Amino acid sequence: MPDMLVNLLKLPKDDGTEASLAQEGIIIRRALAPDKFRIVPRVQELSSLSAAGECDVCFSHSPISTFIATKGATIIGYACYNATAKDFFGPTAVDPAYRGKGIGKVLLIRALQALRHDGFAYAIIGGVGPVPFYEKTVGATVIPDSDPGVYEDFLGRISKLENQ
Ligand SMILES: CC(C)(COP(=O)(O)OP(=O)(O)OC[C@H]1O[C@@H](n2cnc3c(N)ncnc32)[C@H](O)[C@@H]1OP(=O)(O)O)[C@@H](O)C(=O)NCCC(=O)NCCS
């Protein structure tokens, strides 16, 4: 799973997706500390134990480096940044019932805008995943020779390799 590079100086302009989602009652916002024990287990449900660990780390940052998508009190998507390494985007996921509506793209752009605001000019999307999604939404490009990168010593990866 390679990493991808994104130019934060060329992020897409607001195309109205976030406002359309809001009309459907889907809100994208930064995670709040009192919701930590609602969000981290939901990240485990949507993704994995490893992703939940990464999200937990994001709650030790100020501001919390996780955005969530909600419908009412239900968490239907999330995106983390600065989790396993600084200036890295991920993990992220959208509930399968809500995919294809632009939620993943808005979460991604909100997190990348936050990295730009932190002063970075480029960001890394760590260990992708759906390369065409990142190419299409933010013009990301695959970084040569970037697999396994920062995840080399990750026990989840080693255990997967042992079980192959
Ligand atoms: C990847 C993911 C977050 C995308 O979320 P989503 O809300 O369905 O995506 P969006 O609706 O915002 O898609 C935005 C655009 O990307 C396209 N797209 C979405 N997923 C794609 C994929 N896997 N491959 C190619 N294009 C994709 C959509 O068709 C859409 O194109 P459009 O603007 O022309 O309509 C979601 O599919 C997911 O949770 N996948 C499983 C977890 C995962 O792979 N996480 C990433 C790990 S690096």
Task: Please describe what this structure looks like.
There is one protein chain. With 164 residues, the protein is α+β, with helices and mostly antiparallel strands. The protein has a single domain, classed as Gcn5-related N-acetyltransferase (GNAT) (Aminopeptidase). Helices cover 36% and strands 22% of the residues. The chain contains 6 helices and 7 strands. It has helices at 17-23, 36-46, 49-58, 103-117, 131-138, 155-162, and strands spanning 4-7, 26-30, 66-71, 74-81, 88-94, 122-125, 141-142. It has a 7-stranded mixed β-sheet, with helices on both faces. Strand 3 and strand 4 form a beta hairpin. Helix 2 (36-46) runs antiparallel to helix 3 (49-58). It starts with a strand and ends with a helix. The mean pLDDT is 96. It binds coenzyme A (COA).
Q: What spatial form do the alpha-carbon principal axes imply? A: globular
- Relative helix content: 25-40%
| Radius of gyration using CA atoms only | 15 Å
The major beta sheet can be summarized as: 7 strands, mixed
Distance between the termini: 16 Å
**Strand runs, count:** 7
Number of helical segments?
6
CATH superfamily: Gcn5-related N-acetyltransferase (GNAT)
- CATH class bucket: Alpha Beta
Sequence stretches where pLDDT stays below 50 over 5 or more residues: none
Order of helices and strands: EHEHHEEEHEHEH
